[in-house]
What does this fold into?
Amino acid sequence: MTLKEKIKALAALFSQDLIHHRRHIHAYPELSFEEHETSAYVENLLRSYGIEKIEKKANTGLVALIEGVNPAQKTLALRADIDALPIFESNETSYKSTKPGIMHACGHDVHTASLLGVARILQELKEDFSGTVKLIFQPGEEKIPGGASLMIRDGALENPTPNAIIGQHVMPLIDVGKVGFRKGMYMASADELYLTVKGKGGHGAMPENLVDPVLIASHIIVALQQVISRNASPKIPSVLSFGRIEALGATNIIPNEVKIEGTFRTLDEEWRAKAHTHMVKIATGIAEGMGGSVDFEVRKGYPFLKNADELTERLRQFAVDYLGADKVEDLDIWMAAEDFSYYTQALEGCFYRLGTRNESKGITSGVHTPNFDIDEDALEVGAGLMAYLAIQELSSNI
It folds into this structure.
């Protein structure tokens, strides 16, 4: 039996366990940096597989080592995130979230269960490969400053230092059984914007006595769009969106202040810094010119994510070998953000996509929605493929 056949057989053998683990994690979700039960669940399973070298990082994070025949030859890190989102689940399944207002709506339950499957497969096959696999179960991907940055701070990429890192993420736009790769720039940086526009409120029938922060806020929102349309190079993908406006007045009451929240995303760090300055300058000028003021906070979030060209090309070819050429797709730039980018700032990395869509089963909802779910056949694919990628990459001479 070839190594590929062994991995596929083990992935199939463990598939029902992976579904069980995914459903358990899904039913008991925990928010970013509060993943105590999830962390304990993962650690207990790793120890039950015979994996003993386990360390806690960033409070609820875990790093575990699986050593092959010659551990010092090469080290490869594999990462999964373990936190959930503050969303009320609308699915009616046996594994529906038991915690109202908290849901695994981004597939982190899938990532965690899949990496548990990888751990079990590699532990079974540790006499069949050389090198060391570092398993990273990371908290807080969904919340700034990002658990990846804290894991790195606490030494997750040390003792030993990986030669490269691989991450896998669900993609409901890709059919189950397929995966997607992209070399080079892939995902955007993400900054959170918080504005408080201040004026002088009062009765809506007497505007001459007021400084209307609602009107000022409206002008600011419209004017800031020129940061993208007239300041950004058309060659640099950029997005500026506002998703929350809070003016606690009434039909005839102008409030004293208006709060605005939004996000700015791009794929260029130099432009990112310039855009921050532009936005604050424009908003301040408008507010002051209309008799008010604005407090403008830019919370700098995750950097852009860039996949190492040669590493990603090798992994893509390994995926073709494991799944078949018709099961491997090329991805476009994605303007969402991921704190896996912190790892790719520190070492070579590849972040690829695992297909979870199945239209015949009605599984088509996007991530971060109340009815997101997956075709659980993706777990067998995800665990087997990542185990195969890990062993093949450890065996490469690069």
